Amino acid sequence: LLVSLTSIETYVLIHMDRWLPQQILEPMGLDFQLKRKHENDVLTGFTMKLDADTIDGRLSLHDIMLIQSILMQRALVSNKTSNSLMQQRNVVVNSQLVTIRRDLSIPKQEFAVSVGGIHVIFINDFNRQNLPVLQLAVNKISFYGTGIPSDFTGNGSLSSSLDFYNPKLSCWDPILERWKPNLTIQSEENKVHVQGASEYTLQCYIT
Q1: Which of 25, 57, 93, 153 is most solvent-facing, going by the fewest CB within 10 Å?
Q2: Considering only CA atoms, which of 54, 176, 38 is closest in space to residue 107?
Q3: In degrees, to the nearest 5, what angle opens at C-alpha 31 toward C-alphas 54 and 41?
Q4: For 110-127, what is each residue's pLDDT tens digit?
Q5: What's the distance, CA 88 to chain centroid?
Q6: Contact 38/44 with Cβ under 8 angstroms?
Q7: Spans in the chain with pLDDT lower than 70
Q8: What are the angstrom distances between the C-alpha of 175 and each of 139, 182, 190, 200?
Q9: Which tens digit of pLDDT belongs to each residue from 67-115?
Q10: d(CA 146, CA 148)
């Protein structure tokens, strides 16, 4: 399976009473690949790969409130649905035990993710303002992992920085200098170990 998307854009409506879309995501491309391996009609492994261009977007306070309200409404609907299903399942049904033959072999998994970067600017649009507040930049995102759920190993890396906008000087001041951490994930039986490390000093500025 290979899926390739180009010129993906995302918009939100500022006012519901008129058509005035506001772009929050610049055009970007995305490639997704899924490959399966079979031996004697048995699945022995699969590979998933994701490649994406740099994600450039803007997110305002009103956008965050809109997302929050949508998630809260969805949570309320999900709770009502789950409660009604629980009431319908109070009927006990007698059934015979059926033995199902299953193949206990677990296919080997392989994941690869590569993203050019993520660049997001947070905007304060309260009281008819349009002022930038924060700027987040995450570059060179990569991850590769292979194995089975009980014996999995993965390594990832990225480069990140965070700035805030100084309206008096009309410039960006750093909060987090560019930092390059590495991430390692290892699983053994029912335990998952996550370790982060970096050869670079983490420099933060807080006033």
Answers
A1: 93
A2: 38
A3: 150
A4: 999 999 999 999 999 888
A5: 35
A6: yes
A7: 14-16, 80-105
A8: 17, 20, 38, 16
A9: 888 888 888 877 766 655 555 554 444 444 343 344 456 788 999 999 9
A10: 7
> Tokens in use for 132?
């930038």
The owner of tokens 């970096």 is: 198
* Cβ neighbours, 10 Å, residue 60: 22
Residues 6+ apart with CB under 8 A from 195: 183, 184, 185, 186
Q: What is the DSSP string of 3-72?
A: EEEEEEEEEEES-TTS--EEEEEEEEEEEEEEEEEEETTEEEEEEEEEEE--EEEEEEHHHHHHHHHHHH
Contact assessment for residue 41 and residue 107, using Cβ atoms and an 8 Å cutoff: no
Helix, strand, coil % in the chain, rounded to nearest 5:
15, 60, 25
